[in-house]
Amino acid sequence: MHCSLGTDENKANNHAWYKATCASVQEHVLEQLRKTQKSHYFNDTRAVHYFSAEFLMGRLMSNNLHNLGLFEKTKQALLELGVNLTDIMEEEPDMALGNGGLGRLAACFIDSLATLDFPAVGYGLHYEHGLFRQDIKNGAQIERPDSWRDYGNPWEICRPESIQEISLYGYVETKYKDNGQVQKEWHPGMIVKGLPWDIPVVGYGGKTVNVLRLWQSQASNYFNWDVFNAGGYVDAQKENVQAETISKVLYPNDETEAGKQLRLIQQYFFSACSLKDIIRRYKRANGDDWKYFSEQVVIQLNDTHPAIAIPELMRILIDRAELDWDTAWDISSKTFAYTNHTLLPEALEKWPARMLEKILPRHLEIIYEINHRFMEKVEAIWPGDNQIKQKLSIIEEGHEKMVRMGNLSVIGAFAVNGVAEIHSALVKKNLFPEFDQMWPEKLTNVTNGITPRRWLKACNPRLSALISEKIGDDWPLHLENLATLDKYADNAKFQKQFMKIKHENKVDLAKDVLALTGITINPKAIFDVQIKRLHEYKRQHLNLLHIMALYRRLLENPNYEMQPRVFLFGAKAAPGYKLAKDIIYAINQVAMRVNNDHRLKDKIKVVFLPNYRVSLAEKMIPAADISEQISTAGKEASGTGNMKLSLNGALTVGTLDGANIEIAEEVGDENIFIFGLTVDQVQQLNDQGYNPYDYYYKNKEIKAVLDWLDTDYFTPDKPGALASIKHSLLEGGDPYKVLADFESYSQAQLKADKAYADKSLWAKMAILNTARMGKFTSDRSIQDYVQKIWKLKPCAVE
Ligand code: T68
């Protein structure tokens, strides 16, 4: 506080204490960072470079303290100074540089990479504004800018010595070398600077400290007379974005491709800066000899967002290093691997060829050449089959020519993985079957995981202490050890301890809920939690319809037997996603009515917690009894919230989708509430022609509840304000089979209700969930990547 902040403890507020604590922790972090970099440099080891447009880091203080083994010491030291660590940790803003699962997965993965001593760098964008802050006003979502760096970020280090310059726009000149060979030269219309900020990533145990390197865009003074003279200057300038805007804001659309020019520029900007950074480091060790590049460097593409890195590396190898095409392709295609996170057609990225031509003219040429050579391969396998060619081509012909980034990624990568068994199987079977036929080894699975350091040790200290007391304290590194808890599942004393902790966590959350919403909830009630981005396929509206059905049952029969239940939601909707916002509004309107209807005697409460984010998840997850994982089968690639909740002793009500299937395999069918159509049944239903009206007319409860939405019961003075939901489920064709799954869902909920009534049974099931989650540590995911794809060796740090 004295040396870094220039302030005095007598006048320090919580924020100053927070900053001062960071400063003293950072000294330890930086010392290990230096040792790690030295060790990696001298061992000249192969390293993975995780390219991701999103890293959803959350807060770093608690994580860094736990991983350094300094949490208790710091807490004690601060206590001696009259300061409460928990309070000052609340001063830290979330680093919300991501939308949801994909961004959080990247954050868990870099934690595990450092923990397992693998040489790794995370590369991404240094957004000035992360995901928007969500306010709820009169029940509706309002977006406000997130300003996470307003008071500085004590963890990051600015590295002006590693600035990169990136080209955009302009034109390509074709030249001829003395030997007659064609040489292409890109004359850019604009240069922007990339300034790197390093966030240290502290591995558990505090030895390896890797970095997350995030690029900020800046204007460069460069003015391109060349382009000016060629007459292209004005054209290029017309839609030129200001350099600084490139890293201004994270696009808030998860699972939909926005098609915006600035987004493409963001993707190219961080991919190109990162590649230059990697190449600079490679050349320092290997000079101009490219022979060892793909032995030293592996680049993992987190979805197709950084896929433009593939033609960028080709451009560098061909135009700059002057390698021939085959040599360049050999290097490039041994360097990249690609992770697919979705099968939703609207989420598969495509860019208009004309946009690429304007922004990255040379890259478009290279993409055409990659495609041309690939089409020859296709022709050799399926001679004369134009349909297959059309399907596999990187270029989609149509009224507007589009570049398919998924196809480019599969063709340009040596490995492609899905994120859960079923998802990877569907990637092979439905998304890329011909690619799988061409390269039978290329497509594979790596099931997602979560870091148990953040998602159990740090966020649930009570349960962590109990577990350590029973099985020792190396479970954060060896999560499979949790299996030892299995033998306590029937032990009455352990059950009591376990459920007492759950209750205490619920009491804590109830306080937060009261402070955040003014709603009082009963910690003895079931805490039923659905936390994830708002999306039709995730079916928050299925949950809502069921809540309304319970409400009706209680009104019709005041003696209706059920365990009191609090339904808790947390979800952000993409700002342009109308129906998603309508669903948030509906949840809030139903909540308003239900929470104030005294006839219910508090049997049901509904809470929508605003501004769901990593730090709020850390408070909700330890307090959850039920985990809602209710996506339409075949739509949720994996899910990771499902793993976090189960690890903390919540029971899943879920469909046979994504990683739910593997969770069910681990915990056993008797410890999870599975319901609903399977992937095959959804397919069948579609084939035979799905008609939601069948369910509407057949099931009285469905009809009553949907018709209820159409009245002004939940929106006094605003009749019909919730009609869009009913409309989408009937006239809209109910694309996500909400009505088809309703009855089965309702039964699963009934089973859960009955199970909760049996305290000992519930405790046993909850314990077994925690005990059997070992598989889902992100350490296991990383080991899978290392063995199947990256082929890395750990590198010890002193
Ligand atoms: C999620 N995808 C999957 N996408 O939906 C989830 N998309 O099943 C999976 O567990 C998780 O990835 C990790 O594999 C996303 O979160 C996005 O956030 C996103 C963002 C921008 C553009 C497209």
Task: Give a nutshell description of this structure.
By secondary structure, the chain is an alpha/beta fold. The chain folds into 3 domains: 63 residues, no CATH class; 378 residues, Glycogen Phosphorylase B (Rossmann fold); 323 residues, Rossmann fold (3-Layer(aba) Sandwich). It contains 32 helices and 25 strands.
Shape designation: globular
Tell me how many strands there are: 25
Cα-to-Cα separation, first versus last residue: 29 Å
The class by helix and strand makeup works out as alpha/beta
- Note the total helix count: 32
Helix content: 40-55%
Overall pLDDT confidence: 96
- What fraction of residues sit in β-strands? 15-25%
CATH superfamily of the largest domain: Glycogen Phosphorylase B
Reading off the top of the CATH hierarchy, the class of the largest domain is best stated as Alpha Beta
Architecture of the largest domain, CATH level 2?
Answer: 3-Layer(aba) Sandwich
CA-based gyration radius: 27 Å
CATH topology of the largest domain: Rossmann fold
Major sheet: 10 strands, mixed
Low-pLDDT sequence parts: none
Hetero groups = ligand T68
Tally of structural domains: 3
